[in-house]
Design goal:
alpha+beta; 7-stranded mixed sheet; 6-stranded mixed sheet; 17 helices; 23 strands; about 40% helix; globular
Length: about 500
């Protein structure tokens, strides 16, 4: 059992996006007499591979009463309406498909009948890409400015938005807000965590002194100082299904164009390359498998792609996966400290925010007295969410590319059993929420809706148009007429 009703000291190790979001959340949760402290080593840099969010980023900022306009102005953030995938089917630059953040209140995403979306099934049956019917999509294609994008968002579009942002500037901004709200900021190097005989953390030992702790959050990123190094927790690897293990970040200039409204993910010879458009620059990087290319070969491939030299930053090495028990006693691993997969689909920040939301939910609903069963359920739900992320990303690689040794290996690699089960179902009918509910357990929301799966699955021919037509034909007369009317109106546009 965890009892923090009389907690006086909450410590957060690490001052990146995860650490400061946690500090702001706890400052809101706890009474003013409870000290909320962020401990950050001065020389520790902030990893810049996750400079884009999902829809839950906007929800989190709103919940913390941080105005979106202020956030964007002070961090140089830009609108993000989804993802553009380039070259994942045939390796060509003009081979593109989109996964967009949509407004669920507008067609074809607002009508669910018999547990599926008949208007979406109609589009799949006619082989019309979902993105092409999203109101606001033309703004992406036309390269709309940020001002034009804002006007589109204000006029009830089919698009929902998240943000592209610079991790360094976001951390500085969140730190400023947190300190203004009473969070204590200590620059110190953590040397050890003191545990009592029952395994609860009692103090954080640093080079400037020891800090008593009643609740400890490990937001130390890849250092993983608490759950990883101190507790030696069990690691669940995904490397048999996700093969990328290195990333080379670099920056690009905009060349005079407005920032794209989507994150671009370009398939490469041994992985893929991200381009995240900010106001002042493009944050880019090549995520690759070290089995199939070297760092220098990867840099050469990047420069061949763009036609000029780039200034590569320090190469990051990682193993995709997560810790099985991220919450132990009075210690929680948050964000990168809890796990990481490649930055495809911005899952790292999305997962971190869901972890933090549910941690707050459990603490609040438990009245500060949390049972071991609740902690166990949290860890189970966290693991299920990571499995959903693994399977969602694995689906992106279920594509027809076969032109390099890497893509040939991808094609031959066995699927996770849970993804294989989805793949079999998707070829018999359109995807449904019931198919992915297992990834969101114990009140977790999960970070991807079934529509997110459909965007990618349709583009990769993983859903049968013929079977979608069959399920439409089984509708009632009224529902079938609605689908026919919707499709007819599309054809007139």
């Amino acid at each position: 059992m965890l009892d923090i009703r009389k907690a006086e000291e909450v410590n957060i190790i690490g001052g990146g996006t995860a650490g400061w979001m946690a500090a702001l959340t706890f400052r809101k949760m706890f009474q003013p007499n409870v000290n909320i402290r962020v401990i950050e080593a001065p020389e520790i840099g902030i990893v810049g591979v996750g400079e884009g969010g999902l829809i839950n980023l906007i929800s989190a900022l709103n919940k913390l009463k941080i105005p979106i306009g202020q956030f964007m102005k002070e961090t140089g953030a830009s609108f993000k309406w989804g993802f553009c995938y380039e070259g994942w089917r045939n390796g060509k630059k003009d081979d593109e498909f989109y996964h967009l953040f949509i407004n669920p209140s507008l067609p074809p995403f607002n009508k669910e009948v018999a547990s599926f979306f008949p208007l979406i099934s109609g589009l799949i049956a006619q082989q019309i890409p979902l993105a092409h019917v999203v109101k606001g999509f033309n703004s992406i294609i036309d390269g709309a400015s940020q001002e034009d994008a804002l006007r589109v968002l204000q006029n009830n579009p089919g698009i929902s938005t998240s943000l592209h942002f610079d991790s360094h500037r976001v951390a500085s901004f969140l730190r400023k807000i947190a300190v203004e709200r009473g969070v204590i900021y200590s620059q110190a190097k953590v040397q050890d965590i003191e545990l009592d005989p029952l395994g609860f953390a009692t103090s954080v030992q640093t080079d400037i002194g020891n800090f008593k702790t009643d609740l400890l959050i490990d937001a130390s990123g890849f250092a993983r100082l608490v759950i990883g190094k101190k507790l030696n927790s069990q690691w669940k690897s995904f490397k048999e299904h996700l093969w990328l293990d290195k990333a080379i970040p670099f920056h690009l200039a905009h060349a005079g164009k407005p920032p794209e409204l989507v994150t671009r993910a370009s398939a490469m010879k041994a992985g893929w390359m991200w381009q995240i458009p900010l106001l002042e620059r493009i944050g880019a990087g090549y995520v690759f498998s070290s089995e199939f290319t070297t760092e220098q070969q990867a840099i050469d491939e990047i420069e061949q792609y763009f036609g000029y030299e780039i200034q590569a930053q320090k190469t990051l090495t990682f193993e995709p996966g997560h810790f099985e028990k991220v919450w132990q006693k009075n210690m929680l691993a948050l964000g990168l400290s809890s796990g990481f997969v490649e930055p495809l689909e911005a899952t790292s920040i999305g997962q971190m925010l869901e972890q933090l939301r549910m941690f707050e939910e459990v603490i609040t609903q438990s009245g500060g007295v949390v049972s071991d069963l609740s902690i166990q359920k949290f860890n189970q739900a966290n693991e299920a969410s990571w499995q959903g992320i693994r399977d969602f990303l694995r689906m992106h690689y279920d594509c027809p590319r076969r032109d390099t040794d890497f893509w040939k290996k991808v094609a031959k690699t066995p699927y996770p059993e849970s993804y294989l089960a989805l793949k079999e179902v998707f070829m018999q009918r359109s995807p449904r929420m019931e198919d992915i509910n297992g990834y969101a357990q114990h009140q977790w929301k999960g970070i991807f809706h079934v529509v997110n799966w459909i965007f990618v699955a349709q583009a990769l021919n993983l859903i049968s148009p013929e079977k979608c037509l069959e399920e439409i034909q089984m509708l009632s007369t009224n529902d079938l007429e609605h689908v026919v009317c919707f499709m007819n109106n599309l054809n007139k546009v």
